[in-house]
Amino acid sequence: MLITGWLWCLAGGMVAGLLAGMLGIGGGLVIVPLLIYLLPILGVEPELVMQMAIATSLATIVMTTLSSARSHLKHGQISWFWVRRLIPGLMVGAIFGAWLATLLKPEWLQRIFAGVLMILAVRMLIPQRTGEPLTDVSKRLMALISAGMGTLAALVGIGGGSLTVPLLQRLRVPIRQAIAVSSVGSLSIGLTAAIAFIVLGQQLESSSGLLGYVHFEAWLAISLASVVCAPMGASLTQKIPVKRLQLGFALFLVFISLNLVIG
To answer: Which of 5-19, 122-136, 191-205 has the weakest average pLDDT?
Structure first.
């Protein structure tokens, strides 16, 4: 890979790592646009750029959120009750989303997804309900919701934190716990979807630097930088006031939705 390509990947990985630690997301909405720009330069055929950008982004999310989740675990913020409720559905949805991404052009889904994120941003600004977390929510309902979120996340190459954090917030889960649980969810989505993309991409012609739909060299460069920066973001989460964290997350969702519409 060209030196310029390595530098861009390292820079993107740094931003993705910080966002993963601070907001419980995988950083895919930084990585996917970056890879869409870089992959043609690296010799990837135009008709494969979108699928490879999504697959490679999800593969980097594995390393980013693994580092982030370990940091949140160290700080004692991960609620295993909510992990058990969300993870199975997220993983099933991720497999389905990866399969759809190899068959469909995801551009039309991006605008729908942008609208959903804008609604979520507005809801994040509404004062959180007070009281104990709503732990009596139907397991079947949670499984259906999490499967849908996993499918959307895998379709657009993100970890799903922009969906799971607002969901947990509406269930009265404290923001720091919501972010910590989301980091585990993003790890599950990234790992499951990346494996699916590797398996589904076995029919592609063998090429240097490719592992199924995953561009190995780009994955390596982005992962190295993100793993270093994710703990820094997780540490910042412990220091930033909750209201500022909620406002920052809402503004980030607005940025994501506008980016998807423009992109």
So the answer is: 122-136
DSSP-assigned states of every residue in the chain? --HHHHHHHHHHHHHHHHHHHHHS---HHHHHHHHHHHHHHTT--HHHHHHHHHHHHHHHHHHHHHHHHHHHHHTT---HHHHHHHHHHHHHHHHHHHHHHTTS-THHHHHHHHHHHHHHHHHHHSPPPPSS--TTS-HHHHHHHHHHHHHHHHHHT--SHHHHHHHHHHTT--HHHHHHHHHHHHHHHHHHHHHHHHHHGGGSPP-TTEETTEEHHHHHHHHHHHHHHHHHHHHHHHHS-HHHHHHHHHHHHHHHHHHHHH-
pTM exceeds 0.85 for this model: no
Percent of the chain with pLDDT over 70: 88
- Distance, in Å, from the CA atom of 200 to the CA atom of 58, rounded to the nearest integer, reads 14
Q: What angle do CA 157, 161, 167 make, to 5 degrees?
A: 130
Compute the chain's Rg from CA coordinates. 17
Mean pLDDT over 26-53 rounds to: 82
In this structure, the strands spanning 210-211 and 214-215 are: antiparallel
Report the alpha-carbon distance of residue 16 to residue 190 in Å, rounded: 14
Q: Are the CB atoms for 78 and 186 separated by under 8 Å?
A: no
| Distance in angstroms (rounded) separating the CA atoms of residues 26 and 154 | 11
Backbone dihedral angles phi then psi of residue 211, each to the nearest 5 degrees: -130, 90
Answer yes or no: are the C-beta atoms of 69 and 183 closer than 8 Å. yes
Longest dimension (CA), the chain: 56
